[in-house]
Amino acid sequence: MIRSTHLPLLITLATFVLAYALCASAYPAMLSLRVVANLLTDNAFLGIAAVGMTFVILSGGIDLSIGSVIAFTGVFLAVILRETSMHPLAAFALVLLLTTAFGTAMGATIHYLEMPPFIVTLAGMFLARGAAYVLSTESVPITHEFYDTLQGLYWKVDGARFRLIGGLMVLTFIVGALVAHRTRFGQNVYALGGGEQAAKLMGVPVARTTIGIYAVSGGLAGLSGIVFSLYTSAGYSLATVGVELDAIAAVVIGGTLLTGGYGFVAGTFFGILIMGLIQTYIVFDGTLSSWWTKIVIGSLLFAFILLQKGLTWAAKKRAAQARMRTATGSAALS
Amino acid sequence: MTSQTIGPRPSVMRRILPQLVILAVALALNVAVFPEFFEIDFRNGRLFGNLIDVLNRGAPVALLCIGMTLVIATKGIDLSVGAVMAIAGAVAASVVVDGHGWGTALLAALAAGGLCGLWNGLLVAVLRIQPIVATLVLMVAGRGIAQLVTEGKILTFDNPGLIHLGAGTVAGVPTPILIWLALGALVTFVVRKTALGMLIEAIGINERSSRLAGINSRVLLVCVYLVSGLCAALAGVIVAADIKGADANNAGLWLELDAILAVVIGGNSLLGGRFSIIASLIGALIIQSVNSVILLSGLPPEFNLVIKALLILGILVIQSPRIGNYIYLLKASGPQPEPDAPASRPTKEETAR
């Protein structure tokens, strides 16, 4: 039986299958495993960041800082590897600690100062981007043999290379899905998205959950930054401008309700794949310009928002009808 | 804020005093790093000077924040203004490149901006989508549309009429300054000399009750986003005229954030309600003065964003309802203690939310 909460996810899946079928019918080469592998590799950093964004949006919030945090992470890694002899793994740990602390601070500001997440994370966006600028305004290349080793890791199937970062993204999605659906923290996130008042009355630790959500988002943005630096082998403070919007778009296309409370981490995965597919199609086509990506993604975003509105409206109407029925039923009984 | 009432308002001076003080501090900092800051020359029929530069360079944000103030007063937000600027600039450039006059170009750009505003307004008012999300659609797609108009190139033009809008002068004063001053005065006049401003505030405070009171909130909301789109279009034309070209990728990039920041510095609550366009305009000037301090002091411009972020954080702390409650508590525990007043205030706010 299809429950109405699963409907957006199913529609996302159907969209993905349909889009892939359309692409494949135009360019049969897109069915190849190599394209699939590249789809995972090219969207790895966006996917990891989108997992964090899924949690934030599920809780009814928004995090505008992730693009800047990704850029900051990249620049920080590049500068620290150039200036010191620190091992990349230690640098990774340090930067993850920093970004998680940054997320925690934003979450604490949102909760304790009772400010809208939108404006707090906007300040965070400025701060992280500014910090990246202060570190370096130029693109800093990363040359370290450990990076070469990591970049050289792949699993080869039929000429397709499934690289480390693509695997990391899939792993993040699996862990994210488990946390969202199988842990108390995940349930608290859903409860918070359903309504803060109700969550508080149910005994959800609102402070801990809110701060935790933004810490997760910050930490995953840091991880995404590490992946991005592995992907580009450089740190550039002007990179990944607007990634937060792509991540929000992926989450919404993945069927998560923007008002919070409904959605699936797995949906975001397909949202990412749909967006990646659009890009791949444009590359395959060759005559379409890259700006079509933005327009198509914008239209998809609009379509899914409309869909959400329609579903919410239908659910409300159904609830009203059910109320009416019980009311007339009890009237008939008495 | 929920506890606002619409009654006789305190004098304008008292409302904008904090902003004026901050502006004075920012200007004083400018003088501290660059003593000749206030010197204004008149050369080749044009006013020159750092102060004029602040007024001139601040024009795009000042224009944007006029519309943004109205939108935020209705408890909304318009994230698409930067993208709308890019679209308007692209439209204006492509119209003059096609050989039409600057008047046609300006009208076409305004029409494009108006259309974008209308689209946002319909999404918010008719389809009832939250403003952040509704305007996000155009923010994502808008730059794509602008690139579609310019066909991916940076369209350059040499139409003197259009360039005059961005880089020219009228009686020695750079045109952008006159444009934003005139538009600010016009919009302030319209919303304050009619009931329009009050109706907008009523929507921001409580839309449902404003509708029950007979306010046509739907039409007003569409109008507010329309005005925001038109302001963005005008800003887009000025930016394009200033560089004699339309850059779909970079025109107006991040200016939506500056505009929101200007409105917040102007002391307007992001939760809607009472607004002051004059205070927002002073906010825009404060941002530009801070930019100017950073430039003049020789600090690397990289610090610009960090300073802006700290500025927002500081204002957030001051505006925070929690801090407001705390101050209220302090006041209440002063001369005549009211035991239940501090306790009842937060609960009232929470239930209203």
Automatic annotation (TrEMBL), chain A:
Pfam (any one): BPD_transp_2
Localization in the cell: Cell membrane
Keywords tagged on the record: Cell membrane, Membrane, Transmembrane, Transmembrane helix
Segments traversing the membrane: 47-80, 92-113, 160-180, 211-231, 237-257, 264-284, 296-315
One example GO MF annotation: transmembrane transporter activity
GO cellular component, one term: plasma membrane
Bilayer topology term: Multi-pass membrane protein
NCBIfam families: PRK11618.1
Protein name: Inner membrane ABC transporter permease protein YjfF
Organism: Pseudooceanicola marinus
Lineage of origin: Bacteria, Pseudomonadati, Pseudomonadota, Alphaproteobacteria, Rhodobacterales
UniProtKB/TrEMBL annotation, chain B:
InterPro entries: ABC_transp_permease
Primary location: membrane
Transmembrane segments: 16-34, 54-72, 79-97, 103-125, 132-150, 162-191, 219-241, 253-271, 278-299
Keywords linked to the UniProt accession: Cell membrane, Membrane, Transmembrane, Transmembrane helix
PANTHER family: ABC TRANSPORTER PERMEASE PROTEIN YPHD-RELATED-RELATED, GALACTOFURANOSE TRANSPORTER PERMEASE PROTEIN YTFT
GO cellular component terms, semicolon-separated: plasma membrane
Region (Disordered): 334-353
Subcellular location: Cell membrane
Molecular function (Gene Ontology), one example: transmembrane transporter activity
Membrane topology category: Multi-pass membrane protein
This protein's record includes keyword Transmembrane: yes
Protein name: Inner membrane ABC transporter permease protein YtfT
